[in-house]
Amino acid sequence: MTDPKDTAMTYSDAGVDIERGATLVERIKPAVKRTNRSGVAGELGGFGGLFALAECGFEDPVLVSATDGVGTKLKLAIETQRHTTIGIDLVAMCVNDIIVQGAEPLFFLDYFASGRLDVDTAQTIIEGIASGCEIAGCALLGGETAEMPDMYRDEDYDLAGFCVGAVDRDNLLDGRTITPGNVLLGLGSSGLHSNGYSLVRRILSARHIGLTTPFEDRTLADVLLEPTRIYVKPLLETLKRFDVRGLAHITGGGLTENLPRILPPGVVAEIDLDAWTCPSIIDWLRRTGPVEDEELLKTFNCGIGMIAVVDGHDAGPITDALREAGETVEVVGQISAGDGTAVAYHGNL
Question: How confident is the model at residue 234 (pLDDT cuts 50, 70, 90)?
């Protein structure tokens, strides 16, 4: 009888199947290929992704990089087994941070980790990442798939994204030219995007509310898993045509914390909360939590996913151009002289 101590061990015995990973790479190649753009200089599967910056037409390029995740919105995707659009969320969180500095997103890398690699699930997720890259016009240059049975339960997974963009030095947006009299344009969000989901999940748990609960003509799952809007292409075109003073991506921290990141000293952003219609899911969270307005404003985007700071004379033409590109745009406030408080709210959420 063979002593178990004499039996040779394998990686598969430890819960890691290299063949599943190889199968996944082959399956996602068509989706990755669809994201190819000028500058891509290699094929998927190398030790590193290759990108030729000189092919992209920049004169004095500054590289801009961003990394992010999707947070606990992943828990809702896992619970509902709806993985189609969570990759779009991942791309959006990174590329929207790139564009606010005036940069064009060039390429994207993803990190996917799970307790046990389910090839079908992983393929769906990465195809979603590729879709997000197509929307943003950047290449999915590579990534990493990690199978770690001692770190995650079989059905759990985690995602991280990494994006690199570029902008000519003279076109960098840093908010220094923002002055009193400038106008705030708010670009509508597609929902909660990818922030505040720990609070959302706590409300659902505390009130014993399931994700299949009807919400207007949909379900809560439909509303809460709506993918994050990607603003890249309309804003790139806007930056080419108009003088935009600053852009702020409204993520975790809401308007309260994100808008001040681009404001120079000596100004205050005055926001008219009556200027746009807050998404119904925000009102639902307010009532169901309950959650106070101050907390909503510093946790969620409250219907505004991006703020553009523009000269007053350009506000009308820029609004028209963005609306023609499919964005929902409203004048939501102005820049005034002031010290201390960076954001002042007027009206009601």
Answer: very high
- For residues 82-105, average pLDDT: 98
- Residue 7 pLDDT greater than 80, yes or no: no
Q: How far is CA 320 from the centre of its chain?
A: 25
Q: Provide CB contacts within 8 A for 107, sequence distance 6+.
A: 39, 40, 49, 51, 138, 139, 140, 141, 163, 164
List C-alpha distances in Å: 183 to 12, 261, 309, 314, 331. Answer: 59, 17, 6, 9, 7
Using CA atoms of 149, 151, 154, 155 in order, give the dihedral in degrees to the nearest 10: -150
Asked whether 125 and 86 are in contact (CB, 8 A), the reply is: yes
Look-up: residue for tokens 């075109």? 237
- What torsion do the CA atoms of 134, 140, 143, 149 make, to the nearest 10 degrees? 10
Q: pLDDT (tens digit, 9 = 90+) per residue, 266-324?
A: 999 999 999 999 999 999 999 999 999 999 999 999 999 999 999 999 999 999 999 99
In the prediction, which pLDDT does 114 show?
94
CA distances in angstroms from 84 to 73, 87, 125, 176, 252, listed in the order given: 13, 7, 6, 40, 23
Which residue type, as a one-letter code, is found at position 286?
A: R
Question: Strand 104-114 and strand 218-219: pairing?
Answer: unpaired
pTM metric for this prediction: 0.95
Domain ranges of the chain: 17-171, 183-346
User: Looking at this protein, which amino acid is placed at residue 272?
Assistant: D
Provide CATH code, domain 183-346: 3.90.650.10
The yes-or-no answer to whether 17-171 and 183-346 have a common fold is no
Cα(59)–Cα(321) distance, integer angstroms: 27
Task: Report whether 156 contacts 115 (CB < 8 A).
Answer: yes
The count of residues in the chain is: 349
Q: Which residues pair with 310 in a beta bridge?
A: 183, 244
% residues pLDDT > 90 (the chain): 86
Residue 6 has pLDDT above 70, yes or no: no
The verdict on domain 17-171 having CATH code 3.40.50.1000 is: no
The Cα–Cα gap between 309 and 315 comes to 9
